[in-house]
């Protein structure tokens, strides 16, 4: 038995060492989560406007166009439960925070990242944001959370090809939804994505509404305004949304504004202010659309600062 154990250890040791080396290599590749965590730690005391949420905010709101000191802490597929955990963990460091901007997307109340096929992204919050969203080993490791082939590609692209792995500005805005790369067939894409974002069932609805209330209440207790924004979408996306899910989402936004003195809801889903040229794809703005949306929100923030109820 002892002899077998020694052979097993001898066999496994190179595999474990190789795995450890790969994990270290992966963690030392710059990524947007590391960058945002570092920027947040460095400039937390300067931030006056914090943008949180999913990719609709990541690409749709550019803090460069805010008069206040803004930072975009949104990420792809970041759900309301994570927004709350980020605010709860880092909020006390944001001593000059006056405004939180948060998207209320068509699907925000009906899904959570941990319940989707993109749950692997949880490792980015556990490893780099210092959150503990769950305790599953797969979400504590770069190597275990992503396909081995994908990880080897990341290592090759960064260490061999010297590829830039960062896709956000210094203020956290997503830079890779460029008008020069706009999706061509927005009509067909809009139909497909609207169907993808239509959720069958409301298992997470009450929990997500509760997280939204927690965010707004946390901000209320610190005299911080919350701007809830349903961001613009392309017409084919809008026209193929499920009316019940859409109306429920809008009703919750309006209810939050009515029930909380510090909350303001903006439904820009079908806003005439935005044209086809403003969209990267069916539900994300490009840099032109982001400029428009941010200018609009900036004016609202300035007005609210003067008349904060």
Structural notes for this entry:
By secondary structure, the chain is of the alpha/beta class. The protein has a single domain (about 45-140, about 165-305), classed as Rossmann fold (3-Layer(aba) Sandwich). Helices cover about 50% and strands about 5% of the residues. The protein is built from twelve helices and five strands. The protein has helices spanning about 1-25, 30-45, 55-60, 80-90, 120-130, 140-145, 150-160, 185-195, 205-220, 235-240, 245-260, 285-305; strands at about 50, 70, 100-105, 225-230, 265. Strands 2-1-3-4-5 form a five-stranded parallel β-sheet. Helix 3 (about 55-60) links the parallel strand 1 (about 50) and strand 2. Helix 4 (about 80-90) packs parallel to helix 9 (about 205-220). The longest helix has 26 residues, at about 1-25. This is SGNH hydrolase-type esterase domain-containing protein. GO terms for molecular function: hydrolase activity, acting on ester bonds. InterPro entries: SGNH_hydro_sf. Keywords: Membrane, Transmembrane, Transmembrane helix.
Please estimate the helix content. Answer: 40-55%
CATH 2nd-level architecture: 3-Layer(aba) Sandwich
**Percent of residues in β-strands:** 5-15%
Task: Give, in order, the helices and strands.
Answer: HHEHEHEHHHHHEHHEH
CATH superfamily: SGNH hydrolase
Structural class: alpha/beta
Number of helices: 12
Radius of gyration: 21 Å
Quaternary structure annotation: single chain
Query: Low-confidence stretches at least 5 residues in length (pLDDT < 50)?
Result: none
- Average pLDDT score: 94
- Write down how many β-strands occur, each being a DSSP E stretch of 2 or more residues: 5
Major beta sheet, strand line-up: 2-1-3-4-5
Number of domains: 1
Largest sheet: 5 strands, parallel
In the CATH hierarchy, what is the class?
Answer: Alpha Beta
- CATH fold assignment: Rossmann fold
Terminal CA distance reads 75 Å
Instruction: Using the alpha-carbon principal axes, give the shape.
Output: globular
